[in-house]
Design goal:
Radius of gyration: 19 Å
Number of helices: 8
Helix content: 55-70%
Distance between the termini: 66 Å
Order of helices and strands: HHHHHHHH
Strand content: under 5%
Length: about 270
């Protein structure tokens, strides 16, 4: 399908939006009231094959992160960078100068939402983690094991920040792809959002199965549900910087607690 015919097919795809509680309304700062990009041809349409390759690039980045040999957090900077760079590079090739539409200028309201969604995610993941631990059992995340010394700690926090941006790309790019697929299939705009929201939570949870020893309940009921909260940050703001900020806030709090606890135990 050519770009012009794709634009025609998607014209008028935008429909009724969710209410103010979920999506921001028009505001004086010019940032609010914005819709999701690409799914309806604004600013440009992406054909199905390009969306499929974007998803493949996300998977390729994940494989690189999972299997690139790295003995410590300094060496892990390489696969963490590639995990983020591979899908972003493919996305930029297809969207050209319009790639930045997934990012927006961070406003004061965005900072507030970073904190709100970060705290909400901490609460939701903690509650779900407790439930799953009691009912199904849970495995520890080994990410903070052996994080000792200034170099390792600095590399760990820098590397995880890069990786968490990659995790947002790993989720939000497929989210926009699934929205586009649903619109092409005749779904309403809001139905497409809900389907993409749920599908990418499952996708994200499945990616964490190896991290948690293939504990299905932990991957989908804890990580998958927490992903729903983080994706809501993007749905509300249309700004991947907000969902990334909330994700970093959540994970860095958990990582810091784990590192300090391990340090206290070693010193005892």
């Amino acid at each position: 399908m050519s770009e012009s015919s794709t634009t025609t097919a998607l014209s008028g795809a935008g429909g009724q939006r969710f209410g103010r509680t979920v999506e921001r309304q028009d505001g004086q700062d010019g940032q609010d009231g914005q819709d999701f990009p690409y799914y309806d041809g604004d600013p440009i349409p992406l054909p199905v094959w390009q969306w499929v390759l974007v998803i493949v690039a996300c998977a390729a980045g994940f494989v690189t992160l999972s299997f690139f040999p790295a003995a410590n957090n300094v060496q892990s900077l390489v696969p963490r960078f590639l995990f983020t760079a591979i899908p972003l590079a493919v996305f930029i090739v297809f969207t050209r100068r319009h790639w930045s539409r997934i990012f927006r200028r961070v406003t004061g309201r965005d900072v507030r939402d970073i904190v709100l969604f970060g705290v909400a995610n901490l609460i939701v993941s903690s509650v779900m983690g407790l439930i799953v631990s009691v009912v199904f059992g849970a495995n520890a995340n080994a990410a903070t094991d052996n994080v000792e010394g200034a170099g390792e700690i600095l590399s760990f926090y820098l590397g995880t920040a890069i990786q968490l941006l990659g995790e947002e790309l790993f989720t939000i790019l497929p989210f926009l792809a699934v929205m586009s697929f649903c619109i092409r299939g005749g779904a309403t705009r809001n139905r497409a959002v809900v389907i993409a929201w749920l599908v990418t939570a499952v996708w994200f949870g499945a990616a964490h199965l190896p991290t948690y020893g293939w504990n299905v309940a932990q991957a989908f009921l804890v990580i998958g549900v927490a992903r729903l909260v983080l994706t809501l940050a993007y749905i509300r703001t249309k700004n991947i910087a907000v969902s990334t900020g909330a994700h970093i806030l959540n994970d860095w709090v958990l990582f810091t607690v784990a590192i300090l606890t391990a340090g206290a135990a070693a010193a005892a």
